[in-house]
Amino acid sequence: MRGLLLEEAIDSDYKNKKYGIVIGSEVISKHLDMTDRGSCILFGDGAGALVVSLDKDAIYAHTSGSKGSYEVLRVGGKNYNNSFVYMNGSEVFKFAVSTIPKCIDEVLKKASLTMEDIDLVVCHQANKRIIDAVRLKYKESEEKFPMNINEYGNTSAASVPILLSELHEKGILKKGMKVILTGFGAGLTWAANLVEI
Questions:
Q1: pTM of the prediction?
Q2: Residues near 123 by Cβ (< 8 Å), separated by ≥ 6?
């Protein structure tokens, strides 16, 4: 089990704060067609959780949306013959490399910050080429856009909390850091949060 213990995560002044737990968990392997080598090798099962607190003095901004389209990326459904993941890889790539920067720009604008103010951008670990394309758009270093997809594959909803846990374990996350968390997924949904550690 990776990550910070709940007791470690909660501030010593816990009685005066409100806390929540955000959980991302996927057992995507049960929805993979193992004969479809174009997609099944890309995914992994995983789970991660974050303890978050409400702090009126901390910076926070959020954006989210959906396109309501499952022709590009979906997990089965009643109108399909199976419940397997279907993905049109080239269309997902185009969608992600255009949508992620829009999310990042929107939360930066809402927080009245620029990319120079941000310490880390933690992207959904769907594809190295997607993350690199977004990073290069901002002319940022690989350190600012960390990745672990080569270790676990695309763990879907678990990818951001797993990577945050690893960054914490390595001592990279520090109190006061400004971090953008961003992701996208099936049905063509997207979201980003700008948070302060």
A1: 0.80
A2: 100, 130, 131, 134, 145, 147, 160, 182, 183
